[in-house]
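#data-curation
PF: Archiving a pair of folding outputs for the training set. Convention for this channel: one message per protein, sequence first, structure tokens after, nothing in between. First:
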Amino acid sequence: MIMDCMKTADPQMIEMFRPFGLKMEEQGIPPIVINIFKCYFSRLLYGAQGKLPEDDLLPLTDHEVPEYDTLASYAEVGRQAMPHAVVIKLNGGLGTSMGLEKAKSLITVKDHMSFLDLILAQMRALREKHGKPIPLLFMNSFKTHLDTMLKVEGFDNGPGGMPLAFLQHRYPKILHKDLSPAVWPGNPELEWNPPGHGDLYTALVTSKVLRKLLERGYHYAFIANSDNLGAVMDERLLGYMVKEGAPFLMEVAGRTASDRKGGHLARLRTNGRMVLREIAQCLERDLDAFQDITKHRFFNTNSLWIDLRAMEKVFVANGMMPLDLILNPKTLDPRDPKSPAVIQIETAMGSAISAFESALAVKVPRTRFAPVKTTADLLVVMSDCYEVSPEKTVVPSPNREGSMPVVHLDSKFYKKIDDFTARFPQGAPSLIHCESLTVRGDVLFEAGVKATGKVHVINETGKQAVVREGTELSGEVRL
């Protein structure tokens, strides 16, 4: 693929790319990463928008996507393959949407434990269960690496000598007005963007971690976001992948109304391979079809299983992992809407599914999908709707009936983690019998508050109101 990009490179493209190449070289970025960025830049220059039209896709059927509960017979094969498996956690997120300036995985989420605390506890429980020193690897970004490593320092990663982490690369931001490198002297760090978790494949190669894993007999990787506390190594999914000889397996879940903007799985009409389409790749005219959850019924949970030997072959054959281009329009300073408009070149790791002819997908239960993207998500996970299992997985409480409560918190007072924490100083209220909770205005919740049914708390006084200890909320409550 890199060679294909270079064949189309004309003198204008080469000249326009030169300052990007020099900027990346100055930062010590590996040549292979510079070439991959050059490939994507050339696609941008020649008009590629990274779009997947609806007419090019076929929806997946239930027959093509087996359910997790039907795969119990594969568990023994998975247990036998466990000594050859590794867990990789994507840990590059800062949680800027929640006002964070450090690794999102450091947020305290349950029983006084952070995401990282829970991940380490999960790995200890997994190793004890299988009696194998299964390695754990974090893919950190240049902004999360220090915080993460200080937290996990001293964690035993087994006798194989595998590092605990490897670094995601970074790409230069591109000015929208003339496609030149973005410059921001006041804060040069803002001139760069993470390339998305699709960089996983390149980072595994350039860090030499892939080669180390293969040389030590690790053939299979389970990869998931660090903020998805339901995503753990599973013997039946590993066994299904191994026994069926699949080079790539994606965990998907059934789309609901709240998932309609999440990336969905489909098939390409041209070659029948599975393909992942993110909303950024959707043409405006196709938005209704994209969000039709009865048509495109499976969304990507971003938990993947990969045969590392097959991955290496694809990477070597193409000079990169073939991934769909995602052009993400932003402002140079995310906190300053008046700063120059830029384009961020990104990729999603799930789009690699179309590079493997015999890739598979499995519909998993929601117990394997409990991500925390907002403070509203965090409140639900912190509440009694979830509990920590003996394996240190955060799972729905058996006392919870039906789907999880829908929570809306006033963004003016709850969007940032510090503001959120200050308004729930004793933790989350009881939501076990709550259908929905909406909070409008500035409200502080004391300990022991219970919400039942549909609850709408409103404070329009202009001053902070308090829900007192032990209060039981139901219906509309004006403070």
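PF: Second:
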Amino acid sequence: MGKVIDALKARFQTRDIPKTARGQFNALMRKEKGHTGRVAERLGVARRTVQRLVKGDRDISRSTPAVLKRLAAEVSRDHQPRVRAKALKEAKERGLTVETRATFGFTSAEGSTDDARLRRLTENVPDRLIEPIFDALRAGDEDKAKELIAEGLAEEYFRTPGTEAERLDVELTGIDYIELDWR
């Protein structure tokens, strides 16, 4: 994954998804209670393919990269739902803080306002962005998580109401490190 999703997982999950394709497939089969049709639908393959995988006639690790990627995404989506729900609830109650050292670049209606440069920031994430950040974690969407955190940092640090800076679009790139925690 990327640095943002890894930071979210490190703080808000107790363990990772299975590392092997076989382990991931078995986890998905357990989640779907052995229903090969639902597993096939989630992976975008034929039901017969899933039946062969269950029986051992085919090796899941020899599947196409697209299927393996979908498998990892589906297992990640279902992984530790109670742990994630508890973390989301606590984040909504206590708030979320981001500490990062990254390259920030800016654009506004007039064009570039500043050259991108490395900054170290510790800011609170606006409450309205907490749930979408957790949704990006659940989906494993690194780009969306980065976009949401950049939006939160822009609101809290870069944008000043009543000035030209109020309309800045902030882009988060070149992450040196990032950590998330409760407020």
